[in-house]
Specification:
The structure is a single chain. It is built from seven helices and nine strands; from the N terminus they run αββββαβαβαβαββαα. It is an alpha+beta fold and 212 residues long. A nine-stranded mixed β-sheet has the order 4-3-2-1-5-9-8-7-6, with helices on both faces. Helix 1 runs parallel beside helix 6, helix 2 runs parallel beside helix 5 and helix 4 crosses helix 7. The chain starts with a helix and ends in a 5-residue tail after the last helix. The chain binds zinc ion. Zinc ion binds next to loops. The site of zinc ion has 6 residues, from loops.
């Protein structure tokens, strides 16, 4: 079941690894695929060796409906997010270092550069630390999401999400690009001037017609 969605999950997982947002078997990728049904990457498996059959189909209580693998240890947090954010259908969780570093400098990464404006759609808030592999991560991520498509998890990483996997993927990768620019600019001791909100609005408008 859900072969096309499983392929999208695997492709996204390989993409975030290629972009160095995760190492080894870190993070996870998940999708909502129906009423109380979610696809999630398995726990502790390398993405390079993963096949569609390794992706777990789970219900709202983290029970495996289809598949032989143990689902991601963050499954309860991911399900909490899906259930409390009905507008999202895909979540990418990473330990991306530049965004995590930026999370120690600010409580909110501002809309200062095109990639965060385009892909995250709003400033990205920093949620306080809560241990991984527990529902708390999902509760805080939901609380801090606001109208953005990502949250930085302090001392941990990022959750990026979207209406579909493509939106979640752009949010995760472009957030990292902006965060790297932010941290490098801060390291130079240079202040980043705020952008005119009207120009930010026009930038977002342009993104809506970007691509094929
Ligand atoms: Zn994690």
């Amino acid at each position: 079941m859900f072969e096309e969605q499983k392929k999208q999950i695997l492709d996204a997982a390989l993409e975030i690894k290629a972009n160095r947002l995760i190492s080894l078997s870190g993070g996870n990728v998940s999708m909502r695929v129906g009423e109380n049904r979610y696809l999630v990457t398995p726990s502790g498996m390398r993405y390079e060796t993963m096949t569609p059959a390794d992706i777990c189909l789970i219900d709202e209580n983290c029970n495996v409906v289809e598949g032989t693998r143990k689902p991601s240890s963050d499954s309860s947090a991911l399900i909490y997010m899906f259930r409390h954010m009905p507008h999202i259908n895909a979540i990418i969780h990473t330990h991306q270092p530049w965004a995590t570093a930026a999370g120690f400098a600010v409580d909110e990464l501002p809309e200062f550069q095109v990639t965060i404006i385009d892909a995250c759609r709003n400033p990205v808030k920093v949620a306080p630390f809560t241990p991984s592999s527990a529902i708390g991560m999902g509760i805080l991520a939901t609380e801090y999401a606001g109208d953005s498509l990502a949250v930085i998890l302090k001392h941990h990483g990022v959750v990026a999400f979207g209406a579909d996997m493509e939106e979640a993927l752009y949010s995760a990768v472009y957030l990292e690009e902006s965060a790297k620019t932010f941290v490098l600019t801060k390291a130079m001791g240079v202040e980043i001037p705020p952008l005119d909100p009207e120009l930010v609005r026009l930038e977002k408008q342009g993104w809506e017609t970007y691509g094929q």
